[in-house]
Amino acid sequence: MKLAGRVALITGGGSGIGRAAAQRFAAEGMRVCVVDVDGDAAETVAASLGGLGLRCDVSDPEQVDAAFAACVAEFGSMDLAFLNAGITIGWSGDIGALDLAEYRRSVGVNLDGVVFGAVTAVRTLRARKDAAEGAILATASLAGLVPWHPDAVYALGKHGVVGFMRSIAPNLAPENIAVHTICPGITDTGVLGDRRRLVERIGVPVMEPDAVADAVLTAATAPLADTGTCWVVQHAKPPWPMAFADVPSADHRLNMPVSATRT
């Protein structure tokens, strides 16, 4: 996808990976709509890039719809959605001690937020006046590819994002809409919080958000034929596409891409 002159909407754009990606998109000539539950942070980032800052709780589909509508009203279009907002919850990892409200909050942002964002992004892309290539990107995590024992609910959400994005990709390819997932390792964001020194003390390198933004740019500019790719981001390595094992099965006869249903 060519980025210059196009419009990007970034959730969780007020800090961390979202802010770094917004800066990278703007440097590539895109107009950016920065969306964050912290409206002041969104406006600050957007103002520095000549963009639009909006407050939005991505776990609320009505707020998501309103954010996309505001983006289109301001810029006339929306060509790329980067569904990046994510949180972690404070618990011991003991599933028997899980608080139901915290569970709902985690899944609401990390999984529902991507689903709601993708639904609205597809509808918004379909409403454009041209059929130029569009893209939907989502931030998952290495915890979406491997077990994550400290926070199984976080792993649940991120595994869900990976499966969801891989499943919708072939359905949307005929409409010139590319779908990619970004799976970074430990990164210095709000999800990590104040634990960076502790993490590094036990020998785990922490990436800067800019390193993940490089992968976001790689995904955004990848050929449409690469749609459905999960881009793994690890410390001091270029982003690389995850190769998933094939499971031979007659069930695949039913597992075919689905054509769009238009109303």
Describe this entry's structure for a reader:
With 263 residues, the chain is of the alpha/beta class. The protein has one domain (7-253): Rossmann fold (3-Layer(aba) Sandwich). The protein is built from 7 helices and 8 strands, in the order βαβαβαβαβαβααββ. The protein has helices at residues 16-27, 39-49, 61-75, 100-126, 152-172, 196-201, 209-220, and strands at residues 7-11, 31-36, 52-55, 80-83, 134-139, 177-184, 230-233, 240-241. An 8-stranded mixed sheet has the order 3-2-1-4-5-6-7-8, with helices on both faces. The longest helix has 27 residues, at 100-126. The chain is globular. It comes from Mycolicibacterium pulveris.
| CATH level 1 class label | Alpha Beta
Strand proportion: 5-15%
CATH architecture: 3-Layer(aba) Sandwich
The number of helical elements comes to 7
Q: What number is the mean pLDDT?
A: 94
Instruction: State the strand order across the main sheet.
Output: 3-2-1-4-5-6-7-8
The outline comes out as globular
Portion of residues within helices: 25-40%
What structural class results from the helix and strand content?
alpha/beta
Low-pLDDT stretches are none
The total number of structural domains is 1
For the largest beta-sheet, the strand count, sense and barrel status come to: 8 strands, mixed
- The multimeric state of the shown protein is single chain
Mind telling me the C-alpha Rg? Answer: 18 Å
Number of beta-strand segments = 8
GO molecular function: oxidoreductase activity
Protein name: Dehydrogenase
Family: Belongs to the short-chain dehydrogenases/reductases (SDR) family.
Keywords: Oxidoreductase
